[in-house]
Amino acid sequence: MAQIPAEFSANLCKILERISRGDLNDAESLLDNLAVSQGTDPQHIRIAEDIKMLITQLREGAKFANALSDGVLHYEASKNFYLFSEYKQLQANLRHLTWQTQQIAKGDYSQKVNFMGEFSAAFNQMIDGLRAAKKTQDQLRELYATRDKFFSIISHDLRSPFNAILGFSDILTEEWDELNDEERKNFLQNIRNTAHNTFDLLERMLEWSRIQTGKMRFIPVRLNPGTLVRENFSLLAPAANSKFIRFVNDIPEEMFAWADKDAILLVLRNLINNAIKFTQHGGVITGSAAPMNNFVVITISDTGVGISAENLKKLFRFEEQLKTEGTDREKGSGLGLVLCKEILEKNGGLIWAESTEGEGSRFSFTLPLNSGI
Questions:
Q1: Residue 152 shares a structural domain with residue 12
Q2: Residue 125 falls inside a structural domain
Q3: DSSP bridge pairs for 367
Q4: What is the mean pLDDT of the chain?
Q5: Of 6, 114, 126, 300, which is most buried, counting CB atoms within 10 Å of its CB?
Q6: Both 252 and 166 in a single domain?
Q7: Do residues 291 and 349 both lie within one domain?
Q8: pLDDT of residue 3
Q9: Domain for residue 79, yes or no?
């Protein structure tokens, strides 16, 4: 192999020194001059071509780096660029990261970044922090809404019946001698009904608050839904009989589920009581059940007045309770269905309603078949 002359080596060192400083234009000018001065020596030509290619690649890399620093993710590198594949991968990763950042800005904290090692860890840590902050914010918003609604119930739903009780009591106290027996009985009946409704509301509020504070214990056992429906039918028979409503229990004795017995008794009592309230005289209330995968679906259906599609959306919501009078003008707090929903969720179940106005309603809920669910 021929030796490279000292002059050529010296000029070559100058060119490489310019390249190391990043002065690619000066390096290219020196290289052109060197090529002219050294003539057509094949070895010199080959070295000059290699250095020329190096300058071209470095210039392409500089364009890519400048594009990235300016936030341009659509710069198209030459396919001759020796880092073309790596560049395209980096560009794709950065585009995806940009998209993920946009999703995070919209509140989607489910994103997970898998890019550039420590950067990913720091970015994912930030996402976790944002997710936790949003969860706390949502919980606080829900807590404040619940608190406001709770105080609204106390201030309105409790004050109103007490005002009625006080009013009827004042009339009886001050006008007892002027009233006949029928009038006295009517006032006493109103006081009794109002007191019962108020007690029912207080009981539901206390049960709901016990769930919210974690003080209601749930002890799941194997139980037969049909037996619980029968117990509630027996308990609520006086109210049903006063409206000539017939009970039908179609739940098989061999069907079992897994839940807290007292909690499910409370759910059924609420649902059956509501069915009685919104069923006309001579109607029918039916309890039924059917298996569904690893659950049992229990349904309380009635032949009552039904619920509109608009009002169906308001069911089971604490912040938007539905308060309507029964067929005999029975009063309700709207808390019963909220309580049912929370109790069933604690027992691993769900609740929903289906209804057609004028034809009746079906309230269904699920319970696990066994303790493993």
A1: no
A2: no
A3: 296
A4: 78
A5: 300
A6: no
A7: yes
A8: 45
A9: yes
